[in-house]
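Morning run. Coffee first, then this:
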Amino acid sequence: MQKEWLKETARDLIALASLPFYIIAVVRITIAEHKIYTWQLSIALITIYLFYFILKRSANLYAAMSIPLLIFTNIFYNNIRYLIFSGMLVLLLFLSLVYLGYKKKGIIFGAGIGIFAAIAGYALAH
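And here it is:
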């Protein structure tokens, strides 16, 4: 029973870096009329998917999408409490990926792509 609860919680944490959640974040920032953040997140998402398909899907998309979400939503909200909260969620997301048996190499590779995508989003949007 306890293992099922842990697995379900781990899957819920991973969902925070899913495509639908990412789109919700982009829409939220768009509604707030902050075009620069919308561009940053959009460019990062395009970069992630380009690398994902070019590299034959060897990277973990959840790990990749969590990084730009973490970075750009923290820049957007500019609040230390949000930084701590979101940082803990992303850490738990990575632990959940490992717990659920995703390949560690894919997780690390996905995180690297996420970092690169965030840099690309930031650089190209400015």
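The chain has one domain: 2-125. Good start to the day.
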